[in-house]
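Fold this complex.
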Amino acid sequence: MSTKMVDLPDEHGFFGGSDDRGQAGRGYGGRYVAETLMPLIGEIEAAYDEARADPAFQARLDELRRDYIGRATPLYFAERLTEHFGGAKLYLKREDLNHTGAHKINNALGQALLASRMGRRRLIAETGAGMHGVAVATVAARLGMACVIYMGATDIERQQPNVQRMRLLGAEIVPVHAGTATLKDAMNEALRDWVANVDDTFYIIGTVAGPAPYPRMVRDFQSVIGRETREQLLATQHRLPDSLVACVGGGSNAMGLFHAFLDDTDVAMIGVEAAGEGLESGRHAASLNGGTPGILHGNRTYLLQDDDGQIQDAHSISAGLDYPGIGPEHAYLHDSGRASYVAVTDDEALEAVALCCRLEGILPALESAHALYHAGRLAATQGPDQAIVVCLSGRGDKDMDTITRHLMPEEADS
Amino acid sequence: MSASSLNTDALDTDVLDMNTSNTQALIADSRLTRRFAALRTENRAALVTYVMAGDPDPKTSRDLLERLPAAGADIIELGMPFSDPMADGVAIQRAGQRALAGGQTLARTLERVRDFRRRDDDTPIVLMGYLNPIQRFGEDRFLQAAAEAGADGLILVDLPPEHGAALTARARDLGLARIPLVAPTTPPERLPKLLAQGDGFVYRIAFNGVTGTRRTDIAASLGESLIELKRRSTLPVAVGFGVRDGDTAAAVARVADAVVVGSALVERLAETGVEGALALTRELAESIHGARKSES
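Structure:
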């Protein structure tokens, strides 16, 4: 890697690692957890740093990435979408073609291998859309480990196919009724499980948030997305992209795409938050565009919160973006201006789903459709000599109920 | 902001050293130290009762708080409600939700302390909660207001010593004790770091888990760990999480300086109102009063 984009203090191992950057500069990140977990998380950090430097661990990870996940995923030139918008060339990084249908397994596999190396026999995870839950249940089955998935009752309702899939894979699903019964409450509940089962349990956090070293660890496991993208575009087009566009809830697919390009300052990075029913409606999940810094789930970052510091409900049509926080490294990239963050509404995302189906024959996840919508908007303002890479983070089969209800109400009623 | 940025270990030590002399005097003559000294002469453990500020509504919460000392509470832990209490079990989660639904805010919680202090100048009050509402209120503003209102200490669940040096130093300047949490998972070599930022008493979490899990084997499971704590610190040791009845409270009272009861009390309040919660307080106090006598 080339020189660092910015010089940041390397804080006593909390963010650790020689190529670390980002989180610590403005106090984002950190390890704000109960004492019971502090020693445990320290162990994970030490084990992770050891694994990361171990060629055998990397070789095993590479092998399973190739033969089990099916990597590398294609970088696909979306010819008809490009034509439709009449501007910049649109490329889709096809994370939807991964085993289990989303980018989530990149991280689940990495953390599960670490858990196994640490002798843990039980995996727990939170899930929103269910894609992370499916990914963890899948690797748990593959590695012969027990698996418990916490999922908000509201999300269980709207993501039935994934719930059934997880059960089929042998996972126990625990519905969470507390709070808003969505992703943040599932995360609270997973943390409570972990505190009670510290001896045998490994908590696989699904996004680039949580107490350090999770944001760094998840970023590292997802950064394969950007590394491949960089190589693929250089190989076929002999150039770097002008812009990268990815949706952000917690922000793991975006961080995965962005990370390899942080030093390429000519490459614009755009994270797309969920504007829900519109930023002005107050019913959205846009932590950067509509939130303020605070502390939740072990890290300091931007949050949706009220004047009393109580966390507010997020809203998005896509369960995977329905989270009132965002990874701390995104908070840093936002403040520093290295990346910019826009927002796309529920309706706009649905429009992008329909368009992508009709023009490319690809059904994107509602999450990814947020990125697609903005990429189209951006492409239309640019010329054909410019290239935009969109992270198509997952496939949309899991969203068929929601999509049908909104786009084909006559079908849903019948 | 400074408490939330990551201080190095070296900085931790510097900040604390600068403040040691003028603050020890303040905390040495606090309600907490006076209360523990008095209990020591009586040879009994303290009953620490946890209630959530504003649960289920401001009026009931005020009524309960005022009557707890007469029912036998030696120290009051007052919960500051938070929407996402990740270390709490369902009883305290629900209490927080009831309080927030009733309009409780951090400012109102501080007002409750001030109000209590006008009538009772002896019973120590320790505020317990999570960091985010405090940061939103403003750390300095909060510490100042808490000290002025007559609070005696703070338990901040999600502020480990790695992040807590600056806040601890300012709290000490104001005479507010920062009560450290020690867990069963805490290795002995980590204790100095926790105790360096500790005042008032040490809160030993009885077992790995969230608040409110029913356990009757608490006293036995503590084993050597209390001896280890006593060897390293002169602070009194309180034990909490999972103490729900008189027998368990008495067993803990024989080995610890204080017994914390929270979820059981909060549940009793929800089920049977203030009178029920006070009856449980009296029952627990009686068990603790008799604990060391029946032993000797």
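Chain A has two domains: 23-66+104-218, 71-101+223-413.
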